[in-house]
Amino acid sequence: MKLIGMLDSPFVRRTAIGLSQLGLTFDHQSLSVFKDYSTFRQLNPMVKAPTLLLDDGTALMDSSLILQYAESMSTHSLNHLNPALFAKEQQIVGTALICCEKTVQIVYEYQIRPEDKRHEPWVKRIEQQLQEAYRQLNQLANTHQALFDTKKLSHASIATAVAWNFTRQMRPEQLGNDAFPRLRDWSAECEKTEAFRKYPYDDAMSGGGPWASA
Amino acid sequence: MKLIGMLDSPFVRRTAIGLSQLGLTFDHQSLSVFKDYSTFRQLNPMVKAPTLLLDDGTALMDSSLILQYAESMSTHSLNHLNPALFAKEQQIVGTALICCEKTVQIVYEYQIRPEDKRHEPWVKRIEQQLQEAYRQLNQLANTHQALFDTKKLSHASIATAVAWNFTRQMRPEQLGNDAFPRLRDWSAECEKTEAFRKYPYDDAMSGGGPWASA
User: Which residues in chain B touch residue A132, judged by CB atoms under 8 angstroms apart?
Assistant: First the structure.
């Protein structure tokens, strides 16, 4: 199977790292939903990253749906079976995805639109949601330290590290490096692991395309 | 547990119908992420609909993550255990979610922004993606008719009907009623079921607030 999308999208990157941690084999094709629009469109007319193309041609989209399918194909799991811990994991993933989504919305406002088409009240609203999401995520990572372990990465802990690094790279002014120390430290720890180094944000940047949502 | 959000959000509505079909008991609190922003913010500072508040205070967000958690709490499933059919279900849900997301993006462009802040190339791009997504969804519904059965609703078949009704209500000019006949007929069938009538789009409209994403 083939994962399509650039690793500077946090949704693509968390999918790539999750698939690899689940022990699944896949090719990665780094295509931008902007720069490579027409090539991407031939593979998936909806031009959505990540796209996971299965061997029978089925195209899966949406990082959460892809990873749920991947879980069912793997002999092990990056989720907790204990209901209370599974709920916490889903809360953390949901919060990290909001961090990604709100960052993407801010980036889109500044990079897709000409200056005179930006709408300040909208940006202010998103920035407030982003701050709240990171505040909540930092608190969750502090309270549930056992869920953040590089020896046993989970969908939640991967999403958290990927989100933090993405926002720091794309909109550093949104996050002081010391504003959420637990997230900063967790991101630093994760970026040293083999899985994160195999699917790095930086390499993707050399491709020059912007990030895609979901 | 309590589901927060208005049923004119397709993400909230598919969650409500999915939870009820899984046999889970919940209260529904209809709050708008726009009109009821400050009240919503007290319950969830990220102001994200749907939010599922568990009895221990855990706040789950994102319809796919909520429904994945709900599956684990239920004695039955709205997914297929057969891997090939599960892949198809995930493909259909992913495509329906793109239909919802692209519709929301068009609605946001027209309802959140003043006219002089709209960006035509962006709208054109989204409209093209929306058309492709509905073309694909109609084809999937035609090819996999066994997956669309009101006697055995699944996450995929629910998402499809909810998406179609949402776009027809919010941006009817995007979808001729006869452009995608299989989707039109499936939506009509679903809207007659008890589950869809219990969580209707129309009632929510009387609340007057707009739709929220994810």
Answer: 45-47
